[in-house]
């Protein structure tokens, strides 16, 4: 265990923020740390939109499902998968060749790049004493979010991230047992299912304490419900319309 690992092990989502501002220098440092994440073939297929305008934040909070903490945080980052630069590079330097920016592989590369960079940035923010929470709710009305932010073809908002000084104390949500996640040399389905059963007991106790007995739902029940309810089925046609995943 070292300071970096200790910081990572203390991660929790923060949903209430103090009004303390984040300086431009600190914000630049946080995003620059994100840029140092690994990137496939150095394509760096992502962009970040820092939203501080109160009116714009309010509208994004509404589009994300009326999540108040988007309004409260001093800086709201919108992390976007971005193939716009790559398409322009191909147009400039190889105009006579067919470009494959619309391939499923390049969609995956861009989305993975966003995830790696944003998690680097989250860790950097937490090391500076800030709290963060990811906002996947931006995808619920993704067309409106994209229009509001002026995103061109080849760019889509993957999620948002609230950053600010935490104004709450929250517990650390337990994770799956390591044995359910870490496999040696080949996948062990039995080990995974045993770990899931153990995790159900852990989450029952956690939710019971967190909600003062109002909720004792096991993790597997929550996941079953999540998987059997349609959600954001507009994503595929939206992404295709933005020039992603056409082949």
TrEMBL record:
CDD domains: NfsA-like. This is FMN reductase (NADPH). Belongs to the flavin oxidoreductase frp family. It comes from the Bacteria. Residues 9-164 form the Nitroreductase domain. Keywords: Flavoprotein, FMN, NADP, Oxidoreductase. InterPro entries: Flavin_OxRdtase_Frp, Nitroreductase, Nitroreductase-like. Coiled coil: none annotated. The keyword Flavoprotein applies. One of its GO terms (molecular function) is FMN reductase (NADPH) activity. PANTHER family: OXYGEN-INSENSITIVE NADPH NITROREDUCTASE (PTHR43425). Its EC number is 1.5.1.38.
């Amino acid at each position: 265990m070292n300071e970096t690992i200790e910081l990572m092990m203390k991660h929790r989502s923060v949903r209430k923020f103090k009004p303390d501002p984040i300086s431009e220098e600190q914000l630049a440092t946080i995003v620059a740390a994100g840029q140092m994440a690994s990137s496939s073939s150095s394509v760096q297929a992502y962009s970040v939109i820092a939203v501080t305008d109160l009116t714009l934040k309010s509208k994004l909070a509404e589009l994300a499902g009326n999540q108040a903490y988007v309004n409260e945080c001093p800086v709201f980052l919108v992390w976007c998968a971005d193939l716009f630069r790559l398409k322009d590079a191909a147009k400039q330097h190889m105009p006579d060749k067919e470009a494959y920016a619309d391939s499923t592989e390049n969609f995956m590369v861009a989305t993975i790049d966003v995830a790696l960079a944003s998690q680097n940035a989250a860790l950097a923010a937490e090391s500076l004493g800030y709290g963060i929470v990811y906002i996947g709710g931006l995808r619920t009305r993704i067309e409106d979010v994209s229009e509001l932010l002026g995103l061109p073809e080849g760019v889509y908002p993957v999620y948002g991230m609230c950053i600010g000084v935490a104004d709450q104390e929250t517990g650390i949500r337990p994770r799956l047992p390591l044995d359910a996640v870490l496999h040696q040399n080949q996948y062990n389905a039995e080990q995974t299912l045993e770990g899931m059963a153990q995790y159900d007991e852990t989450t029952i106790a956690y939710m019971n304490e967190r909600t003062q007995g109002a909720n004792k739902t096991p993790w597997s029940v929550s996941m079953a419900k999540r998987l059997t309810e349609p959600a954001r089925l507009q994503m595929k046609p939206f992404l295709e319309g933005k020039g992603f995943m056409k082949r």
